[in-house]
Amino acid sequence: MSTGQNDNELISNVLGGDQQAYAVLVDRYKSYVFTLALRFTKNREDAEEVSQDIFIKAYRALADFRGASKFSTWLYTIVNTTCITFLRKKRLEVYSLDNENVFEVADSQDSGLRANLVEQKSRVNMVNQAISLLSSDDAEIITLFYKAEQSLDEIAKVLGIETNAVKVRLHRARTRLREKMQKHFAAEVNDLN
């Protein structure tokens, strides 16, 4: 099977019984889905779990895809609802300070953070950290436009607002992102210039 097929051709093949065509779609969109899921969950393990759920849900609902928008726009809707559902179900773990193991858990989590310091200095991570400082609305529109590479019209459909409103929100979100980066990552931003 040729992997040069467009999304609609692959979807037709999947609906015709070709499961390998769905593997091509998963491979094509796995980074996209994982990045969005990680944005919601803030945790790599949770993002991996949610990503698997998203692809299962997308497979089951594939017959509902009408092709009115890009497949990635349709998939984003599934990502959004699945992540929100996951976050609602997830309970915060509470530990008693009387439990001696709680300090071991805290130490092990801290050492994991130290091991990731090198990675955190990368440009991508710096931008992701700055995005995490934004409001959820600003972060969502920045993520859709830059990471998910959605057009203004596609974002308008996903968010249920007018295209001009998307332009305004995106402009304001960019301004706030620039402010966050200058405030929290001034040295790194200067190093990039």
TrEMBL record:
Residue ranges of every copy of the RNA polymerase sigma-70 region domain listed in the record: 25-91
Pfam family name, one: Sigma70_r4_2
Keywords: DNA-binding, Sigma factor, Transcription, Transcription regulation
RNA polymerase sigma factor 70 region 4 type domain location: 127-177
Claim: Transcription regulation is one of the keywords in the record: yes
InterPro entries: RNA_pol_sigma-70-like, RNA_pol_sigma-70_dom, RNA_pol_sigma70_r2, RNA_pol_sigma70_r4_t2, RNA_pol_sigma_r2, RNA_pol_sigma_r3/r4-like, WH-like_DNA-bd_sf
Family: Belongs to the sigma-70 factor family. ECF subfamily.
Annotated NCBIfam families: sigma70-ECF (TIGR02937)
Protein name: RNA polymerase sigma factor
Organism: Terrimonas ginsenosidimutans
Record lineage: Bacteria, Pseudomonadati, Bacteroidota, Chitinophagia, Chitinophagales
